[in-house]
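Lab notebook, bench 4. The sequencing result for the construct came back, and we need a structural model before the next group meeting so we can plan mutations. Quick request posted to the team channel:

Model the 3D structure of this chain.
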Amino acid sequence: MTNRHVCRWVCRWVLCSALVAVAYPHFTRAEDAPMPDDVYPASQPAGVVDGLPSTDVSVASDASIFMPPQVVIPGESSLSPREATPSLEAILTSDTPSLVTTLPSQVALVSSMEAVPAPNQLAYGEVQPAPVPSELPPVAPSAQPNIPTEQQKLGEAPEDYSHQFLRQESVLLRPGDWQLDIGINYTVFDHNYTNLAVGGSEESPSVVPVDSRFTSRLLLMPLDFRYGFLDRLQLFANVPFGWSNTENAFFGFDEFSNKGGIGDVTGGLSYLVCKGRGQSYQPDVIATLACTAPTADVSPLQGILEPPNTLLGQGFWFGSWNVLFVHTIDPVIIFYGFGSRHALMREYHGYDVRYGDQYMYRGGMGFAVNERVTLSASITGSYITDPRLDGQRIAGLAMEPVSMRFGATIARPACLRYWDPFVEIGLTDDAPNSRVGMTFTY
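Done. Here's the predicted structure in token form:
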């Protein structure tokens, strides 16, 4: 190697050493360099760097963290960046977790989660930390919206009066409750028949058929009392008072009979066998047992000749049963039922008289016009077998009365009573021609 080459290498080494000596302080004290405003503006919100949210969170060591010129730590004086930056050992052993956010501009901030300065007390370059969800104040129960659900009930349900038109046959009273019916009705039964009149002389008598007419008029004031004995058991009693007028007339002859006073008394019980629970296909089933005492002034002979409900009574002891089915398809109520009625034998003028067996049926429907008014229509019928005298059947006296009833039940809760006007029309010759009345329930 020549001297020229040696001189060149020495000059190069000296030049490089000079450049390193000049540039080295700038690399070792980079934190002293001023930070331009556009690198990290103080107006940026917490957790946002350069207009974008910061998601890169890492734990850094002492040698890899660079801080802005001055960092203000709450409760401390201004420290240099390296003195204000915690070491890895301090972060791992500290009871208070620290959050280190790495910025795109290689600037990181370490903030304590316990002491958070107010926004107006932050120094230049310091970030307001985002609130931790667990530190959010709880919402007061009263501030939560009260949204009613389908299962939530608001207020009291209005009382249902739609079944009250069946109050005499169904079980509607709670234990200890009672109802009293006071009514008035007028019944007319008019029947034309052929009678046999004996004519001619004593030497040659003759039997002549004569058109006759039988009319029965009945003005009745029934008193019905019902009492809720148990949850599904209801007791009842019926005591009628009234006046009865009968007329038997044919050509040239007329006979009247008037009677007044108490009618046959009936008492019994009704039991709710099955509750339908509001399902249309599952009806309420009510069973009724009743007994009737012959308290009216009516002879047994007259009782077997006249249709039911045309006199004050029928002159026999009766026992009856019936079953009623009630379907509720709001606002329509459909009901139907059947039963039978049997009489005990009674002695009359030396003869054993027994009333015929009676097989009953009924059906109808009610329509709730509104919460207080229900319209109803029903058909009631029965077949009564021939009566017996001394054990022998008396042919030709079987009857089949069938009638149709229209009514309206009007509820008046203010005075705790119901109005029940009705009208009945006979559909067969053995049924009363017409029956009109009104019932008041207290």
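The chain is about 10% helix and 45% strand.
Will bring this to the meeting.
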